[in-house]
Amino acid sequence: MYKVNDRELLNPSEVIEFLYCPRFIYYMRCLKIPQNEHNRFKVMKGRDIHQYKSQINKEYVRKKIACTKKEIDIFLHSKKLGLKGKVDEVLQLADGTMAPLDYKFAEYKGVIYSTYRIQALIYGALISENYEKPVYTGYLCYIRSKNYLAEIKFTQRDWLILDAALKDMRKIIEENYYPKATKYKARCVDCCYKNICVEGLEASKSLEISGF
Fold first, then answer.
1. 3-state SS class at 192
2. Helix (H, G, I), strand (E, B) or coil at 91
3. Which residues on neighbouring strands pair with residue 75, listed in sequence order?
4. CA distances from 122 to 5, 103, 195 (A)
């Protein structure tokens, strides 16, 4: 699909950030402006998970799934898709298919957020290509909900959304295309690029006027 070298491979975080706001990928890849990640609460919380993963009874988690074999912390890449990523667990299932299992330092609140879904989908795509096996399902383990295990059934719509996102990201990177910002202005408040992005500056002014 895409001809890229290893340095150009996109990771799940970049895809998720692109879906959060398309301008993330422009600032990172076109203008080469790194994120000030240590100031971003969500990123820090995501990294906390590694401190808790060692405390989980992973065999107990896997027994809930018809898993026949697993591999842990597997790095995968695909030049065809232009993607790379490290999967917490690569599972072989009893029905001959495979699935990613990802641990989340979060509570399960009855809804699987789109960011988690797209991350699992990317891992699924990487597993399917590298292992040449079908992937129809992904699993999330919510550590702060007593290791609640959520199942994600991937749909055709999911694959289409991922494919469209990757095409749009490539267009931005290859053509230095400056995309529209997200239509959800509340997202600008927590954005690390809010001081250089017109939408971010406008969002900050709105907060000042509101007295926040």
1. coil
2. strand
3. 86
4. 18, 15, 31
Structure tokens of 3? 């001809």
Token pair in block for residue 198: 């017109």
Task: Write the pLDDT tens digit of every residue in 120-156.
Answer: 999 999 999 999 999 999 999 998 898 899 999 999 9
Q: The tokens of 56 are what?
A: 């989980």
Half-sphere exposure of 137 (CA within 13 A, CB side): 17
Q: Each residue of 83-103: pLDDT tens digit?
A: 999 999 999 999 999 999 999
User: How far apart are the C-alpha atoms of 140 and 70, rounded to whole Å?
Assistant: 15
